[in-house]
Every structure is written in C-alpha cells, then in structure tokens.
Amino acid sequence: MKRIIHGTLAVLVATGAFLPLWAQGKGDPKVGKELHIKNCQRCHGEQGKGDGPAMKAVKTVKLADWTNPTEMAKYSDQDLYKITMEGGAAVGKSKLMPAYKGKLKEKEVWDLIAFIRSLAKK
Ligand code: HEC
Q: Which of 26, 65, 76, 102 is deepest in the core (most CB within 10 A)?
C-alpha cells in the first residue's frame, strides 16, 4: 500500500501536478514585461531586439534579437534561465550580461522567460 502511494506521488510530482505554474516554466509574460523594463531594457532594448541604449557603444558583442524565432530556437528555456541567473560569463558568453542570482527571484526569471518567448511570433 505504501508503495502504491509513493508511486502515485512520484507520478504527480513528475507531471507537475504539485508544482506551482512558474516552476513548470510557465511564467506570467505581463509581469515579465515590467521586470524587463526595469532590469533588461537598457541593454536588450524595449522590444528585446538587442538594441538598448547601453549597448549602442559596444561593438564587440551582438545580443540576440528576441523577436527572431530562428535565433531564439537555439535556446531552451533552461538556457535562458541559466544565462539570466548566472550571467553571460557562466555560459561562455559576454560578461557584460550580468548575473541576476540574488537580485531576481526564481519566479521572476520565469516571468521574464515567458515575456521573452512571447516576443518571437512564428
Ligand atoms: C548591462 C547590459 C545587460 C543587461 C542589463 C542585461 N543583459 Fe542580457 N545580455 C547582455 C549581453 C551583452 C548579452 C550577449 C552575451 C553574448 O552573446 O556574449 C546578453 C545575453 C542575454 C541572453 C542570451 C540571448 C541574447 O540576448 O543574446 C539572455 C536570455 C539575456 N541576456 C537575458 C537578460 C535578462 C532577462 C535581463 C534582465 C533581467 C538582461 N539580460 C539584462 C547584456 C545585458
């Protein structure tokens, strides 16, 4: 009997039935947009095209265009999460991309990812 209960629990957890939505990678793009304006827009640009004012003078690195589905298909949600939390240097990218660990909550990063994903319309 105990085993059956354990088995059922494992299935429920595995299917995400017990996890909050954001932990399943389903953030809120509206919240994400606000966070983007506050934290990311100056480099990534209002539309996420990678043309923010803080990057105008930087010629050595090209940011991805978040509205380009082909470009964004190269990144899994986990990739986007890791880059945002740990920063560019942690994934072999430019250290100009700051790490947001300790600045943004896990949920907020998933909200941002939901926003980023909403920009590239196929
Ligand atoms: C100070 C400028 C700066 C800020 C602020 C910034 N980024 Fe970045 N970000 C970069 C740079 C530069 C890269 C490109 C790194 C590379 O390709 O080597 C990058 C890359 C990324 C990437 C990988 C795809 C891409 O666009 O090239 C993601 C995802 C990302 N940033 C998310 C965020 C999020 C989310 C925020 C806000 C919470 C943010 N960034 C804030 C500079 C910034």
A: 65
> What's the gap in Å between 81 CA and the centre of ligand 1?
11
| pTM for the whole structure | 0.87
**Rounded (5°) CA angle 51-25-86:** 55
pLDDT tens string 54-75: 999 899 999 999 999 999 999 9
H or E stretch at 114: helix 106-119
d(CA 90, CA 120): 25
Burial 7-31 (b: 16+ CB within 10 A, else e): eeeeeeeeeeeeeeebeebbbbbeb
Mutational pocket test of ligand 1: of 63, 84, 108, the residue with most ligand atoms within 8 Å of the beta carbon: 63
